[in-house]
Amino acid sequence: MEAILPGEVAWYVTGRFYAANDGAVLDAGYFLQLQGIDASLFRGDPGEGAAHLTFLANPFTATPLTNGDLTLGLDAVGEFAVYLNRQPAATFDDPASFGAGEEIARFRRVRVVTGTTVGSGKKNQPIFALNVFSARLVSSRPFDLGGRRYDLGQLMPNGITQWGTAATTAAAQLPGYTSVLPFVGSAIAIGGPPHPPPPNPRGEFRYA
What we know:
Blueprint: E1 9-20, E2 25-34, E3 53-57, E4 62-67, E5 70-75, E6 79-84, E7 102-109, E8 113-118, E9 128-140, E10 143-145, E11 148-150, H1 152-155, E12 160-166, E13 177-189, E14 205-206
Antiparallel strand pairs: 1-2, 1-13, 2-3, 3-6, 4-5, 5-8, 6-7, 7-9, 8-9, 9-12, 9-14, 10-11, 12-13
């Protein structure tokens, strides 16, 4: 298994941002494509309920500010994990369901993330929102999919930089949340020589 080349597309994901009543924000979703994995990422037709690889972020807070027609959100540094679901059953009606599988990798966002919502649009509704962030790999463990073994620690040992575009119209209304917004993200692998430490007794790699 060879590492993804620096600057090469590492993955495409889609998911939803969940803003809770208490002000916390999290995102959850699934992988549409992950470079270096030859097996199908879905059990049946593509969709969240058939996704073998999902992700779920730890709840975080965002500090809002404005600049003309731009609304900015400064997201605190946080982590998200990637999960292998041997029996896929995730649903956007329950964001926690995207973290019900086996954790195969964990990433930590680097510094503060700035998200931008653009324009007022019709009836003072925003036009679209976008963000970009880098995330370092914190831990990984090997996993089997489609009869082959993979490890995100070998595919992208230095982490990723992801660009995301979000809709501004709510995808659903859920108890406990003020808004649920769909998004799509594309990530590239961060370059540099990998220096993974030896695996611990459970076969996991731990990174700084």
